[in-house]
C-alpha cells in the first residue's frame, strides 16, 4: 500500500485532518526531495506562482494548462529563461485540464483560473489523487463548498486555498500575540477587501488603463471577473480579510462561524467610471451593476466573537484590508498602525505605534525565511503560501490551510448574497466540518518550517 | 398673540420646522438680548453647561434643580465665584423639576440627568412652553422618541438634543466637504462610541478610580448608567457617532434611516474588570452584564448609503469615534487621520494626511467663533452646542438640531436591542417626521452664526 492509497483509506475511515499529523509523526519518513507540479491557469496570477516554483530547487514544473495561447507562450519563455526543462502543455480547449490532471508525474496541481472554474478543476485534481491548491475565492456557490469537502473526505486528496494574506508579516505577528494571550480573550475583529478595482474590472488592455471594457472586449481579469459585479450583490471576495481573522479566532478548530448579516450600499462606482472615462453614450453605460459599492458583513462566531468584513472595490481609495484585532486586554488596528495593550502601553487609554510589537512578536516562520521570501519577490506572502503547499506535499501531510478553510471562507460570498437579497436577514453559516471543529487542532502557523 | 402662542399655533397647523425658518425671516424681529435658563441636573455634565452659561453675557441662570444637595452646593459656589446672582433652587425630591418648569422667568430648560429621566423632564419643559435642551441619548425607548415628537407637534415647544460631537471641528469640516461634493455622492459612513468606560461604570468615588461599585454604592454616573449595561444588550449610546453622520447624509431632510441590524459580542469586559480589581469573591463578580462588549449596528438609508455604528465601552482602548465618510470621489478616515480625493490627492490610490483639507474646509462657524470657543473651555464643542440652543431661543426659531433628530438618533438604541434579541434580524426604523423628510430643509451648520 503506497502512501497515497493509505491516505485515501484513512480518509474513508474518518477524520483525516486530525489523524494525519500524528500519523506523519509516527511513520516519520524522509520528506520527498522533489515536488512535481502542474499549473492550471498561467495568466498574471498563475505566472507569479510559476515564479515561486522556478525559485524553488525542490520543485519541478511538469505541466501547464491554459486556454490562452499567449499565456502559454509567455510562461514557456519565463521557464526557458531559467534553463529549466519545458513542461508539457495542455491548451486544447476548456476541458484539457482533465487530461493534465491524469499525468502520473504530478504530485500537486495549482489552480489560478476564473472563479467559476476553481471547483471543477480542484475536484478533478483531487479525484486524480493529486494535492490541489486553489486561488481565492475557492468557491462561488454553497454547493461548491460542500463539493470540496465531500470530495476531500471521499478521496483523501488534500485541497489548500492559496490565501496569501494569511502570511502577511503583520497579521502573523498578531496571530502570535493572539495565541500568547497578549490581547486577552478575543472579542472582535475587523477585516475586508478595500481595493479600488475599477481599473481592473474595466480595462481594454490599452487606453492607459482607463478603458471601460469588460467581458469579450475586456483585458485580463475584466474578461470574467467584472461579470460577477453585474450579476451578484454580496461580499464576492471575502477571503483576504477573513483568512487571517479565521486563524486568530480558531475557526474550524474550537470555534466556527454561526451566522451573518450583510448590507449593501447603492451601486454607483462602476457606472460612474464608465461615464467619466467612456462617456454617457458608451454601451457599457447602460449596464446595470448589481454589486453595491460597499458591502458590510457582520459574522457571529460560536465563541461569541464578532467579525466585521467590508468589501469595497468600486470606489476611489487607498488599499487597505482594514484589519483590527481586539480582545479583553488590547486592540491592534491596521489603519493607523496602532496598538494599545492594557498595563503594557505606557500611557493609559492612549494607543501607540504598532511597529515595536510587530517586531517583538515576529512569527518564527518569518524570522527564519524572511530573506528567502524577499529574494523570491512579491513581498513575501506569495513565497510562504506557495511553500506551504509544497512542504505539505513533501511531508505527505495536510496543508496548513485546508479544505474546510477553503469551504467556509469562500461560502461567505453566497451567504452574503442571500442575506442582502433577503433585506439583511441573518443567514446561518454551515459547519463544513460537520462537528469536527470541536476536536480539530490548529494547523496554521505552528512552527518555523512552513 | 405673543410669539410663543404663535409658534404653538403654527405647530398645530402643520410642519413647524419647515415653516419657522422662513417665518422668522419674514417677521424679522430683533433677537432677545437675554436668555433666561433653568438647569435640571447639575452634576458633572450639567455644571459644564453652567460653565458655558456663566461665560455668556446674554444668559441668565434663574433656576437649578437636582436631587443631590452636594451638586446644588457646588453649583451655587460655581455661580457665586463669577459674581452673578444666585438662582432659585429646586431640590425637594425627584419631582421638584415639575415646579421649576412652571416659572415664568425661564425661556429654556437644559436637562442633564440620568437617561431614564430625560424624557419626563423634557416633556414637562415643553408642556410648560419652554425650549428644552436634553443631553444624549435623549430617549431610552421607542415610545419616548414618539412622545418627544408628538409633544413638540402638539405644543410647538422646541426640543434640541445636546449632541456636542456634531460641532467637532473635523466633522464640521467634513460636513462642508460633503455638502460641496468634494467626496462625490455619499455612499458609506462609519462611526461609533469607542470609549473605555469601565472606570466610569465601576467606580466607588475613591479607590484611585478602580473601585468596582455601581448603583447605590456607586459614584457619579455609575450610580445609574451601569444598570443599563446589566439590563440591555444593544447600542445604548449611539448619538455621538450618529449625529455628525446624520448631518452628512441629510437624515430627516431628504433622506432617512430605513432599517438596521445589530450584532453583539460576548460580554466580558465589565466582569473581568471587577474580578481584576475587586477579586473573584466581590459581590459584583456575580452580576450578569447583558451588554456585549462590542455592538455593531449597520444602518441602511433611503438614499442607499450604509452606516456602520460601533458601541465599544467595556474594553481597554484609546478613545475614538471611528468616523469615516466615503463617497464616489473620496474617503476620509478619522483613525489614521487620512483622506483620499480622486484627482486631487497627489498620488493615485494613496491617502494623505487630512489636516490641510480640514483646514481648507474649516466650517464658517468655527472660523468665526474658534477663539470664543477656546476661551469657554471644554475644547469648543460644548461652547457651540450650548450657543446653538441659546441663539435659537434668542431668535425664537427652531434649534439647529431638532426634536426629530433627537427622536431618531436615540431610537437606534431600542431598535438595536430588538435586533440583537431577534438574532440580528433587520428592524425597521420609524420615520419620526411622518413623511416630512421629503420636504424638510437642512437646519444644521448653515452659516457662521450658530
Short description:
The structure is a homodimer of 450-residue chains. Chain A is built from 16 helices and 15 strands.
What would your notes on this structure say?
2 copies of one chain form a homodimer. Chain A is an alpha/beta fold and 450 residues long. Chain A has 2 domains: 121 residues, NAD(P)-binding Rossmann-like Domain (Rossmann fold, 3-Layer(aba) Sandwich), CATH 3.40.50; 232 residues, Dihydrodipicolinate Reductase, domain 2. Chain A is built from 16 helices and 15 strands. A 9-stranded mixed beta sheet of chain A has the order 14-13-12-11-7-10-9-8-15. Chain A has a 6-stranded parallel beta sheet with strand order 3-2-1-4-5-6, with helices on both faces. In chain A, strand 4, helix 6 and strand 5 form a beta-alpha-beta unit. In chain A, helix 3 packs across helix 15. The longest helix of chain A has 19 residues. The radius of gyration of chain A is 22 Å and the shape is globular. Chain A starts with a helix and ends in a 22-residue tail after the last strand. The N terminus of chain A is likely disordered. Chains A and B meet through strand 8, strand 9, strand 10, strand 12 and strand 13 of A and strand 8, strand 9, strand 10, strand 12 and strand 13 of B.
Amino acid at each position: 500500500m503506497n502512501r497515497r492509497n493509505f491516505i485515501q483509506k484513512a480518509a474513508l475511515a474518518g477524520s483525516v485532518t486530525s489523524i494525519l499529523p500524528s500519523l506523519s509523526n509516527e511513520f516519520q519518513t524522509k520528506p520527498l526531495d522533489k515536488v512535481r507540479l502542474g499549473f492550471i491557469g498561467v495568466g498574471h496570477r498563475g505566472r507569479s506562482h510559476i515564479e515561486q516554483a522556478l525559485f524553488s530547487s525542490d520543485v519541478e514544473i511538469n505541466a501547464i494548462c491554459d486556454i490562452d495561447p499567449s499565456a502559454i507562450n509567455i510562461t514557456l519563455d519565463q521557464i526557458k529563461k531559467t534553463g529549466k526543462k519545458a513542461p508539457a502543455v495542455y491548451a486544447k480547449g476548456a476541458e484539457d485540464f482533465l487530461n493534465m490532471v491524469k499525468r502520473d508525474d504530478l504530485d500537486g496541481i495549482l489552480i489560478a483560473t476564473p472563479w467559476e472554474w476553481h471547483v471543477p478543476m480542484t475536484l478533478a485534481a483531487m479525484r486524480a489523487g493529486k494535492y490541489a491548491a486553489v486561488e481565492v475565492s475557492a468557491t462561488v456557490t454553497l454547493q461548491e463548498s460542500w463539493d470540496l469537502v465531500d470530495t476531500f473526505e471521499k478521496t483523501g486528496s488534500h485541497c489548500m486555498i492559496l490565501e496569501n494574506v494569511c502570511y502577511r508579516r503583520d497579521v502573523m505577528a498578531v496571530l502570535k500575540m493572539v495565541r500568547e494571550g497578549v490581547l486577552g480573550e478575543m472579542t472582535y475583529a475587523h477585516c475586508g477587501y478595500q481595493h479600488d478595482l475599477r481599473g481592473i474590472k474595466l480595462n481594454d488592455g490599452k487606453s492607459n488603463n482607463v478603458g471601460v471594457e469588460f467581458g469579450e472586449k475586456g483585458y485580463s481579469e475584466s474578461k470574467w471577473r467584472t461579470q460577477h459585479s453585474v450579476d451578484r450583490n454580496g461580499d464576492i471576495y471575502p477571503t483576504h480579510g477573513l483568512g487571517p481573522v479565521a486563524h486568530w479566532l480558531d475557526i474550524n478548530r474550537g470555534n466556527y462561524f454561526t451566522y451573518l448579516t450583510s448590507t449593501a450600499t447603492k451601486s454607483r462606482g462602476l457606472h460612474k467610471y464608465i461615464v467619466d472615462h467612456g462617456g454617457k453614450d458608451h454601451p457599457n453605460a447602460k449596464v446595470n451593476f448589481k454589486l453595491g459599492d460597499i458591502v458590510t458583513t457582520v459574522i457571529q462566531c460560536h465563541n461569541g466573537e464578532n467579525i466585521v468584513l467590508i468589501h469595497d472595490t468600486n470606489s476611489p481609495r487607498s488599499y487597505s484590508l482594514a484589519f483590527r484585532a481586539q480582545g479583553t486586554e488590547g486592540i491592534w488596528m491596521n489603519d493607523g498602525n496602532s496598538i494599545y495593550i492594557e498595563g503594557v502601553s505606557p500611557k493609559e487609554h492612549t494607543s501607540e505605534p504598532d511597529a515595536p510589537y510587530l517586531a517583538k512578536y515576529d512569527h518564527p516562520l518569518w524570522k527564519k525565511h524572511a530573506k528567502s521570501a524577499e529574494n523570491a519577490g512579491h513581498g513575501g506572502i506569495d513565497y510562504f503560501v506557495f511553500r506551504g503547499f509544497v512542504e505539505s506535499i513533501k511531508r505527505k501531510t495536510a496543508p496548513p490551510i485546508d479544505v474546510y478553510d477553503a469551504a467556509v471562507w469562500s461560502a461567505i460570498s453566497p451567504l452574503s448574497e442571500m442575506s442582502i437579497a433577503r433585506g439583511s436577514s441573518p443567514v446561518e453559516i454551515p459547519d463544513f466540518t460537520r462537528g469536527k471543529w470541536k476536536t480539530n487542532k490548529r494547523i496554521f502557523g505552528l512552527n518555523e518550517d512552513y
